[in-house]
Amino acid sequence: MDSLNLDRKIRLLVVDDEKPITDLISTAISLDGYEVETANSGIEAINKLDGSTYDLVILDVMMPDFSGNYVLQRMRSNQDLTPVVFLTARDSTEDKILGLSLGADDYITKPFSLEELSLRIKAILKRHLLSDIKNSNILFAYDIELNLDTFEASRQSTLIQLTALEFSLLKYLVTHANKVVSKAELLEEVWGLDMYSDPNLVETYISYLRKKVDVFSPPLIQTIRGVGYSLRDMTQRQPNGFSK
Fold first, then answer.
1. Could you give the CA distance from residue 80 to residue 105 in angstroms, rounded to a whole number?
2. Is residue 173 part of a domain?
3. Strand pairing partners for 15?
4. pTM listed for this prediction
5. What is the pLDDT along the chain (244 residues), one digit of tens a residue?
6. Edge-to-edge strand order for the sheet containing 158-160?
7. Residues β-bridged to residue 141
């Protein structure tokens, strides 16, 4: 991966309900220079995916709570396009077709070769990260598209006229889609002001943005009372205990 000249470590998440397997994979692929985290259940995987960003996820299918298929479906419904490699004992053609149709990038059956897994990870990361670098001037979240070269914003393929500040605010919400950002964070990151500045400034510009972005359905700019704001689709149902 050195040829990509990345200024950060590549982050992977390994998910399997059998801890010896996550430990084995984590140890092996860490030797390739990746930063690796593990999860031993579907719930733990969802929590980690909601709270962090990864470059690739290695995902077991059969887990006692939420299956790998469910975790992947939830990722894709949240507009999370992180590459996913299924690593599972389910080896039927029907299982492979289902996994790939849900949006998996690869499907490896157990027992597996660590060397083969390493090579497949490298191939997927190279393809995905090069694509990200090439298209980094275009940002997407749900049906919103931002062109960072032309400073054009659109929703449902319809151009939205935004001021420079509104564009910067929407860009921050888009790049943090499905996560909650506080007023203090927005003041610092969008306006360059400290947390003691007037929070009404954020409320005012969120209101401006809603009048332009949320004339479309469904509304995406949500107020999370007492916390901040989040770009998310509240019409999509989530499992008990989880929200986007």
1. 13
2. yes
3. 39, 59
4. 0.55
5. 444 545 578 899 999 999 999 999 999 999 988 999 999 999 999 999 998 889 999 999 999 899 999 999 999 888 888 889 999 888 888 888 888 888 888 889 888 889 989 988 988 887 777 655 555 588 888 889 898 888 899 998 899 999 888 999 999 999 999 899 999 999 989 888 766 667 788 999 999 999 999 999 999 999 999 889 999 988 764 433 333 3
6. 138-141, 144-147, 152-155, 158-160
7. 144
Strand bridging mode 138-141 / 106-109: unpaired
Residue at a domain's end among 85, 116, 134: 134
DSSP 188: I
Tokens at residue 41, please?
A: 């259940």
Does a structural domain hold residue 40?
yes
Based on the structure, what is the number of domains in the chain?
Answer: 2
Which own/partner pairs from 154-161 qualify as long-range (CB within 8 Å, at least 24 positions apart)?
155/213, 155/216, 156/216, 158/216, 160/212, 160/213, 161/212
Domain assignment present for residue 125? The answer is yes
The whole domain housing 69 covers 2-134
